[in-house]
Write a structure and sequence with these properties.
The complex is a heterodimer of chains A (455) and B (229). Chain A has 455 residues and is of the alpha+beta class. Helices cover 51% and strands 18% of the residues of chain A. In chain B, strand 4 and strand 5 form a beta hairpin. In chain B, helix 4 crosses helix 5. Chain B has seven helices and ten strands. The chains are: A alpha+beta (455), B alpha/beta (229).
């Protein structure tokens, strides 16, 4: 076929039967609009969940549990710790940027203090763990680091002489004290929420602002417990709250890893300083995360915090369900396109016979009809995309003016990425072409004489 | 150039053959009139010769080659290059101009027959002039009289300078005067063109113009008296 003539023929046919094609396009337009709208919404929500709410570039890895319930007891038959070799193996996985080990405090501890906030001192059993300070370096800088041993030799008689990060240990002794740094600790936002939501009400305590907690000092007796004290004498340390972080243990306090190692070795033996209970893996990107997860699971470990994956999965399911609505519309529209093209082919039977009589091959007839369908799909697809984008803009405007602010509320709820638009447009074209194929094959079948005679 | 041997044709669902053993040979510059009543098989015969219908028994050879050996591409090329059809019902495309109707075969030309748009337009104007419709290229078929439509249909058949021109009742829908003009045109093409013309008609005027007259009755060639030829 000659290009321009062929294009003219397609255009002329489309214009001639525009009512048929317009009717056939309605389904495609609606399907494309619904599919694009819901996919863009789902992609944006998924992005919010993975990037902001549950950063998926951090995965917490722990030994795979193999618990068996035996009457009132739960027996843990699985491996309960990771060693340095496992950390090395984790670091060697493709797509892993960094490995941050976490270690539980293996002895009991008592925390006491809080006079400045609660009005009187509190004492409570508390659990603790240690994390690599680099894990929170971005949010806390150097305020959460292991104690610097060089500063432990400055003599003092009052805390004020030791600066903000240290206190005067032994100031009441006859020989005077020495400045010792506070051990920085982190608490989880959940601890603050638990206190503000339930604990304070039960005890009639004031509500606290998490930011005001930073700098709060208190004491911890490691190895001490009202329940079951350790065999060795407890170690008393002064702690200073360095910040509130979601990297901290949900209930308890989190210390720099080196401090927990030191305390575990001192109170529970050298082996306790070599056993990590979990590790946080930083993956290079969300795209590499699935491969990293597979490799981790192949090592007999499991991903402990599945919040992000669950959220992403739930979002994906909702997105797929909503997209199915659009997909079903497109499928129905494809059937409608097929119906319309059968009609068009029937109406144009003599014309097609004539084209065959002047030299059109069966393939030419098929190409002509498929090209017409592709153009219909392209136009319908563009209209559908325009409707979806307009609906997205309208929804964003509504959300901006009528929906109250909430955490992680985005400026736009839709991610109309170029690849999405191209993919849906392609789908519209493909759907129309698929719909037109059976009529095109039928039109091209048979002898020209039959078509010319209207048989 | 064209040879038919024992050609039989029965349409699906029909009880009898529409063609019952046709033997025929037509030379390169013959003007053959096939005369017969409606339903006698004239149109069917033209369709078979022109490669519009592939369901038949017997042998049809064009230029020494059996049509059955042609695949879809080859028979399409035959229809595009060698054969020009003039249909009784014209079969013009009303949404195209006369020029576009005349040159519609160029859309499907292949090989050396593919020409640029300017050549196509020039050739369309040329054949429209040949059939007596100069300057009508931009008109739509709906604005033409029956005779003019038939001329456009004839121009379309002549576009690729066919070696076989098949005319099915070329004057069937025309008044006497217009019919005479078409017959004169065909006669002129026969005398000055380099093609075989086969016209199916029940119009004695056309049969008189043809050098050979073949009478067909109930699917067989018969002589003037109705006996088998």
């Amino acid at each position: 076929m000659i290009g321009r003539g062929w294009l003219r023929a397609v255009t002329a046919d489309l214009l001639r039967h525009w009512r048929h094609f317009a009717a056939a396009s309605v389904g495609i337009i609606l399907g494309v609009a619904a599919l694009t709208f819901f996919l863009a919404l789902g992609l944006k929500v998924r992005e919010l969940l993975l990037v902001q709410v549950f950063p998926a570039n951090h995965l917490e890895v722990a030994p795979r549990s193999a618990d068996i319930d035996l009457f009132a007891l739960r027996l843990d038959l699985g491996r309960d710790a990771l060693d340095a070799a496992v950390m090395t193996d984790l670091a060697s996985i493709d797509g892993v940027d960094a490995v941050y080990p976490k270690m539980r405090l293996t002895v009991p501890a008592l925390a006491s203090g809080g006079d400045s906030i609660f009005g009187s001192g509190l004492q409570t059993e508390i659990v603790a763990d240690g994390i690599d300070p680099d894990l929170v370096a971005d949010e806390l800088g150097d305020t959460f680091r292991e104690v610097d041993g060089d500063r432990a030799s400055i003599p003092c008689s009052r805390d004020e002489q030791c600066g903000d990060q240290s206190y005067c240990d032994g100031s009441r002794s006859f020989s005077g004290g020495i400045c010792r740094p506070y051990i920085p600790v982190l608490v989880s936002p959940y601890v603050v929420e638990l206190y503000n939501g339930a604990f304070r009400r039960a005890y009639g305590l004031p509500k606290i602002n998490p930011d005001s907690l930073v700098g709060l000092a208190f004491e911890m007796d490691f190895g001490a417990s009202t329940f079951r004290p350790s065999a060795l004498p407890p170690i008393r340390e002064r702690m200073r709250l360095a910040g509130v972080s979601d990297k901290a243990i949900p209930l308890g306090v989190t210390l720099p890893l080196g401090e927990v190692k030191r305390l575990n070795v001192a109170l529970d033996g050298p082996a306790a300083g070599e056993r990590y209970h979990s590790a946080v893996i930083e993956v290079q990107s969300k795209q590499t995360a699935p491969g990293v997860v597979d490799a981790i699971e192949a090592m007999g470990l499991e991903i402990r915090d599945r919040g992000a994956r669950r959220a992403a999965f739930a979002t994906a399911v909702i997105m797929v369900v909503l997209a199915l609505v659009g997909g079903v519309l497109i499928a129905v529209a494809t059937a409608h396109i097929m119906h319309v093209f059968y009609l068009v082919v029937m109406v144009r039977r003599r014309e097609i016979g004539l084209l065959r009589a002047v030299g059109a091959r069966r393939g030419d007839i098929r190409k002509l009809l498929v090209a017409e369908a592709a153009v219909v799909g392209m136009i319908a697809g563009v209209l559908g995309l325009a409707i979806a984008i307009a609906a997205g803009v309208a929804a964003d405007a509504f959300a901006s003016s009528r929906v109250p602010d909430f955490p992680f509320k985005p400026e736009s709820f839709f991610a109309f990425s170029p690849w999405l638009l191209v993919a849906v447009l392609t789908l519209a074209v493909v759907a129309c072409v698929i719909g037109a194929l059976p009529p095109a094959f039928r039109a091209a079948s048979g002898d020209p004489s039959e078509a010319l005679a209207g048989r | 150039m064209i040879r038919l041997e024992g050609v039989r044709k029965r349409y699906p669902g029909a009880d009898i053959d529409v063609l019952r053993g046709i033997d025929l040979t037509i030379g390169a510059r013959d003007f053959v009139s096939i005369v017969g009543r409606s339903g006698s098989g004239k149109t069917t015969l033209l369709n078979l010769i022109g490669g519009l219908d592939a369901a038949y028994e017997g042998t049809i050879e064009v230029d020494g080659r059996d049509l059955r050996s042609f695949d879809d591409s080859e028979v399409s090329t035959l229809r595009n290059r060698m054969v020009g059809h003039v249909f009784q019902a014209y079969h013009l495309l009303d949404h195209l101009t006369c020029s576009e109707n005349v040159s519609v075969a160029s859309l499907f030309a292949r090989g050396e027959m593919r020409r640029d748009a300017s050549w196509v337009k020039q050739r369309a104007d040329e054949v429209l002039t040949t059939v007596g419709l100069p300057g009508s290229g931009r008109r739509r078929p709906t604005t033409l009289s029956g005779g003019e439509r038939q001329r456009v249909a004839l121009a379309r058949a002549l576009f690729h300078k066919p070696t076989i021109l098949l005319c099915d009742e070329p004057t069937g829908n025309l008044d006497l005067e217009t019919g005479r003009e078409i017959v004169a045109l065909l006669t002129d093409l026969h005398l000055n063109g380099d093609m075989a013309i086969i016209a199916a008609t029940h119009d004695e005027m056309i049969s008189g113009a043809g050098a050979r007259v073949l009478r067909v009755h109930e699917g067989r060639f018969v002589d003037r008296e109705g006996g088998e030829a």
